[in-house]
Design goal:
Blueprint lengths: L11 E5 L6 H7 L5 E4 L5 H11 L3 E5 L8 H14 L3 E6 L1 H14 L3 E5 L10 E6 L2 E6 L7 E5 H4 L4 H20 L5 H23 L4 H20 L4 H13 L3 H20 L4 H6 L5 H11 L16 H10 L10 H13 L8
Parallel strand pairs: 1-8, 2-3, 2-4, 4-5, 5-8
Antiparallel strand pairs: 6-7
Helix pairs in contact: 6-7, 6-8, 6-10, 7-8, 9-10, 10-12, 10-14, 13-14
Bound molecules: nicotinamide-adenine-dinucleotide.
Length: about 350
């Protein structure tokens, strides 16, 4: 018997093709009349189209969302919220744009409608990471959980194949850790397996044919499932390593998850081989770690920390930061083994080589 506590999160999810057209109805359902649309500068054009679609219910566009949710950007957006009298935000984009919407909700309690265009999964979580003076802090608060998610497969067709692979592996990482986390439960483990399986089916197809609508739909469904896992249960070593490498060494988010996942999985598989069994099965491999590694290689994903810009002399300091505040992990954290893990990831050796 594995006793558990499960806390369901309350969100409305609309999934389909052409669903951005339904955002007006969603605003009407919540009696919202002045939406500020949020995007990154790179996706400003999609934001403009949304403003047009929303017509009288649009209060304007803020196209300044940036990676790691810097407080200065949030302050700037808050000024616009006040100036235009917005009563909600409509966030269109990846995790960076969703993060800005969450930061606004934290400070104003304004409702959020999120239209995700990557597979990061932030839209399904009550988690917000922000940066102030270069330092990143992460918090969990129901205040930041978006009220509505509108998944529109059409908007993901433009996600470049390379980003699709890394973003998809970022999503898979949530589910892999969700399978063995200490607060795991049967519902979330089922969702985790579904999410990994959907992305395992879809990513190789998208890698070959980025405009395959069926595979894009599968991938977006998988991303939702994996985001749901991240929102519902705690994470462990893999997410900790990526948080440190992103926060303290400015490595890119999805790519770092991609490189680290097989290595962190090998580290933990010694303690939770049974829980990771479904991952090995999905990738038809003898272990979850080797399955994930071969899958990433097959998709031409980045395989080394070196190619992401990590400097070898910084690896010691990275381990120091990882060990500086203790956290739960199924396999005890041993400084030397972690250093070996980072070496394997730095050079792109097979996972578990140094263990
Ligand atoms: P991102 O949001 O920074 O997107 C990267 C770039 O791709 C941006 O320029 C974006 O505009 C562009 N882009 C996104 N979708 C596109 C599309 N369909 N077509 C063309 N371009 C597109 O990257 P991300 O990986 O989605 O998110 C990473 C951020 O999200 C990190 O800051 C991370 O910490 C955060 N995150 C938070 C959570 C959470 O639960 N709080 C979960 C996952 C990620």
């Amino acid at each position: 018997m594995y006793p558990f506590v499960y806390q369901a999160l309350s969100q409305r999810v609309v999934f389909g093709s052409g669903t951005t057209g339904q955002v007006v109805d969603e605003l009407g359902r919540m009696e919202l009349t002045r939406a500020l649309v949020l995007t990154t500068p790179q996706q400003e054009e999609i934001g403009r189209q949304m403003v047009t679609t929303l017509g009288a219910r649009a209060a304007g566009l803020f196209a300044g969302a940036a990676m790691h949710t810097p407080i200065e950007v949030t302050d700037e957006a808050l000024k616009q919220i006040e100036a235009v009298g917005a009563d909600c935000v409509v966030s269109i984009g990846g995790g960076s744009t969703t993060g800005l919407g969450k930061a606004i909700a934290l400070r104003t309690d304004l409702p959020q409608i999120v239209i995700p265009t990557s597979y990061a999964g932030s839209e399904a979580t009550p988690i917000l990471g922000e940066t102030k003076n270069g330092a990143k802090t992460t918090q969990r608060s129901m205040k930041v959980l978006p009220e509505v998610i509108v998944y529109d497969v059409d908007l993901t067709m433009s996600l470049p194949a390379k980003m699709t692979v890394t973003s998809g592996l970022n999503a898979i990482a949530h589910s892999v850790e969700g399978l063995y986390t200490q607060d795991r439960n049967p519902i979330i483990s089922t969702i985790a397996q579904q999410g990994i399986a959907a992305l395992a089916r879809a990513l190789p197809v998208i890698h070959q044919r980025p405009d395959d609508a069926e595979a894009r739909s599968d991938a977006l469904y998988g991303a939702w499932a994996c985001g749901t896992v991240l929102g519902a249960v705690g994470m462990a070593l893999h997410h900790k390593i990526c948080h440190v490498l992103g926060g303290s060494f400015e490595l890119p988010h999805a790519e770092t998850h991609t490189v680290i996942l097989p290595h962190a999985t090998a580290y933990n598989e010694r303690a939770v081989a049974r829980e990771l069994g479904p991952v090995a099965d999905i990738f038809q491999s003898e272990s979850a770690a080797s399955g994930l590694w071969s899958f990433a290689r097959r998709l031409d994903a980045p395989m080394t920390l070196a190619e992401l810009g990590m400097k070898q002399p910084d690896l010691d300091r990275a381990v120091e930061v990882m060990m500086s505040n203790p956290y739960w992990n199924p396999q005890p954290l041993a400084e030397e083994e972690l250093r070996g893990l980072l070496d394997d990831a730095f050079f792109g050796r097979a996972p578990g080589t140094s263990l």
